[in-house]
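Hi, here's the filled form for the chain we discussed.

Project: internal
Contact: R.S.
Residues: 156
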Amino acid sequence: KIKKLKATGLNFQLHLVGDGPLKNKIFEFIDENFLQDVVICHGWLEKKSLLQLLKSSDCLVNPSTGEGMPNVVLEAMACGLPVIASNVTGNDAVVKHEITGYLFNLNQPEQLLQYIVALLNDKKLSEKMGIEGRNWVKNDFTWQITAEKYLYLLEN
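And the returned structure, exactly as it came back:
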């Protein structure tokens, strides 16, 4: 879908963060499809560098096939970013669809493209979702609240 996004003519860059077993395949895909101008691979980043990257971004995309508690999603929301995440367990617990971002179905990649284009084309919507996400994290995912929820689960 990155080629379709590039074909829209929108000005964007995709920053990939992290390492993993598919790293070499990703580099090959980027080279084979001439995407070096829009895809930047960072590898693993220290927290400070990751925070700087998040703060300079328009949104976070998390196309995960499975999550526990998606910390990167919460970190992005804490930075005021709207999130586009796969509709899988974990992501669905923290992303409020059409309020703090979007949830897309992995078997419908056109949704992902649609949501990226929507956020890139509508800065007011993006900002509103980012504010909602920051407030959601600030009010519902503090260490105190999380600890209280765990205690409740353990006691009942």
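Let me know if anything looks off before we file it.
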